Amino acid sequence: MNHLLTVENLNVIYGHGRDAVHAVKDVTFHIKPGEIFGLVGESGCGKSSLGKTIIRINAPSSGTIDYKGVDVASLKGKELKTYRQEVQMVFQDPYGSLNARMKVGSAIVDVLEVHKIGANTAERRERVTELFESVGLNKDWAWRYPHEFSGGQRQRICIARALALNPDLLVADEPVSALDVSVQAEILKLLEELRSKHNLAFLFVSHDLAVVRNLCDRVAVMYNGEIVEMGDVADVIDNPQHEYTRKLLAAVPSF
């Protein structure tokens, strides 16, 4: 099977000289079409830096990110715009991810307009209502402001916005960590449904091995900027080889 995304020997360094911070160290992995690939580790281990580099918010210091056979670092102009259409991100904070002064549906209409999806505003508004229904929200709620929604509903809106451009890969950076446990379960179920319906691949970033076990196909364990263990999620969790993985598992109350 051809890989959708291949990361090889990736390094991300912030700053220079003595002040340099080596956030991502020689990381290599791949994601297949339709696969949910987990990236797990404690806060500060480099997970978010890696995710932001994949979507080109950060620039890689060295190494390669290959998407469908193309080097992501080389993309410019129209090609970069197409890549950002196909690879979307859902952020951790559903409160800070939405413009408080803008109706949530209007924000999605703007995204569609920038990428020239839909012939006119009416078609784009219709697309918004479809997206709301696809993430389990009342379509009439699209024309409300962010403060009128709960945290779980806001994260569904952020997922709808990410889906608006029909991506093949979603980078989900701790998408449920700010939510109550019962709401977490609902969002995880939604992600699994979207994967099945659209053959959507995920890079699912989390600090929670219990969540990763329930959702992901494969997992990489990240520690101090490096991947220290990687494999099928059941193999890694049931038979951890690295001491850090065992410590993460020991910190989970119960599966």
Automatic annotation (TrEMBL):
It comes from the Bacteria. InterPro entries: AAA+_ATPase (IPR003593), ABC_transp_ATP-bind (IPR050319), ABC_transporter-like_ATP-bd (IPR003439), ABC_transporter-like_CS (IPR017871), P-loop_NTPase (IPR027417). Residues 7-249 form the ABC transporter domain. PROSITE patterns: ABC_TRANSPORTER_1 (PS00211), ABC_TRANSPORTER_2 (PS50893). Transmembrane segments: none annotated. Pfam families: ABC_tran. Keywords: ATP-binding, Nucleotide-binding, Transport. One of its GO terms (biological process) is transmembrane transport. PANTHER family: D,D-DIPEPTIDE TRANSPORT ATP-BINDING PROTEIN DDPF-RELATED, TRANSPORT ATP-BINDING PROTEIN. This is Oligopeptide transport ATP-binding protein OppF. It comes from Pontiella desulfatans.
